[in-house]
Amino acid sequence: MFMKTSTPGILHDIRTIRDIESSLEEAERFIERVKSNKVRLNLSEGNITISRAEMNKITDLVVTLERSGQALETAVQYLRELMAYDEVSQLFARRYLFHLLEKELHRSKRYENSFAIIVFELDPYSQSGLSHIGTEDMNQVVAEAARVVRKYVRDSDSPGRSGERTFMLLLPETDADGAQILCDRISKEMQKDYSVSSGKLPLKVHSSVLESSDPALTDLAGLLYVVDQQLAAARGEAKAA
Asked: What are the tens digits of pLDDT across the range 122-155?
């Protein structure tokens, strides 16, 4: 079951890696041509002249340089794409998401722009009575839950997978009240029974909502600390209920 959801992502990554290799090989070929086609200049009576044959070499290298530059640019774009996205959830990867968070924190301080953050923690253990879930089953649950997240986010939002079972949404120009409404909608839709290899798996979702005006959000470390505290409190409330 998991293979059906993950295969397109895997094939996409394979094609991307092959494109990167092809682009880098073209750039490498250009470097070799530069090394083997040195242009010779003639000095006569204080004047530098160049033959037609040498000029043709320069023209050819300039044309090839442009193509090689485009190949390198394409390779860099592909590498950024591989680094930015998480294969299972098709959301931003943890490292890239944290990079966006740091930028937004800096922007908020400098321009006093507000933003909100929603964090979801998937809990497949509290209601199922299980102590361990297989990797493929867990990936399937993560992939299906991530589809719910993608369904609700705006183009301006930045959703990412911040941990094995956690998602984080960065919502620019959003206050805590608006973020809470979105949080409730997504949580409600994610909390259901998931069909996995062992049968039905009931999923509980814990959540946290933060606003940039929170004085504890001075930097990324402070933000993550508050998130951990709020999720721990949410777990405790769910267990008490």
From this structure: 999 887 777 788 889 999 999 999 999 999 998 8
Say whether both 100 and 65 belong to one domain: no
Secondary structure in 3-state letters for 137-180: HHHHHHHHHHHHHHHHCCCCCEEEEEECCEEEEEEECCCHHHHH
Same-domain check for residues 174 and 141: yes
Provide the residue range defining the domain that includes 160: 94-240
pLDDT at residue 229 tops 80: yes
Confidence band for 5, pLDDT divided at 50, 70 and 90: very low
Confidence (pLDDT) at 208: 94
Domain total for the chain? Answer: 2
Rg (C-alpha) for the chain, rounded Å, is: 26
Q: What is the rounded average pLDDT for all residues in the chain?
A: 80
Contacts of 212 (CB under 8 A, 6+ apart): 104, 105, 108, 113, 114, 115, 116
What is the rounded distance in angstroms from the CA atom of residue 138 to the CA atom of residue 128? 13
Cβ atoms of 140 and 203 within 8 Å: the answer is: no
Assess if residue 51 is contained within a domain.
Answer: yes
Q: Do residues 65 and 158 both lie within one domain?
A: no
